[in-house]
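Reminder: ligand-aware prediction takes two inputs, not one.
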Amino acid sequence: MRNCRSLLFCLGLAFVDLSTLHSEDKPEAPRIALATPFAVSRNGTTKVTVRGWKLNRDIEARTKIGNVGLRMIKHDNANIPNGQDAKLIGDSQVELEVTIPPEIAIDTLPITFIAAGVESSPYSLLVGGRFPVVGEVEPNDSFRQAQAIALPQIVDGQIHADRNVDLFSFELAVERKVTIEVIARRQGSGLDSLLTLFDSRKEIIATNDDAELTDSRLEVVLAAGKYFIVVQDAQDHGGSAHPYRLVLGY
Ligand SMILES: [Ca+2]
Ligand SMILES: [Ca+2]
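Here is what comes back for the chain with calcium ion:
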């Protein structure tokens, strides 16, 4: 059993594998664009949908981490939402059950797909989170419907349709420096996040579009009070390839 205790170590393992891919006689390798959700549970089984290219055929899922279970449920063509680019979000998908036994302590899980002897580059699923993780609850499209979250907190959500916006609220008992971060494109999501922070009077305090790739990040010192976070797509696109992870921390 080999545990993958750091991202660099995981990438190192994956790099060794890539050296076996270069053969002109072999068919085109499958490629992975993104997984929804990005993260699987630390203990137990999580169902994820993995989008990419050349996934709608007989493929096998693999990982270098021993004792992790990967079970293929089905593979199919993936829908391409209006106006979106299959080159970015993939044209086929698989459903996969990922089971991580409790004795394995990892923060990321590199997976690959292999078809007809050729293997994809690795994609790193996130495992758990450094803060408590909750799922987004729709409808949360207005200040009135804002989903109350704690601090610190991780929310796994999705801009599920064009022009969809997701609102969250949180309260501070004392003044604090707060970081609010969206993880999306870094995990392959089609979302180009736009993050806006409002005070209790619904006035904008801060906004950010691109901090890392197209992912947004805010770092602000806030007085005690109630605040609202709005997550949306900068181009107002949305759909099944627009998952995100919102990280609200100190
Ligand atoms: Ca949503
Ligand atoms: Ca952005």
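The chain is about 5% helix and 45% strand. The first helix runs from residue 7 to 18. We will return to this case in the review session.
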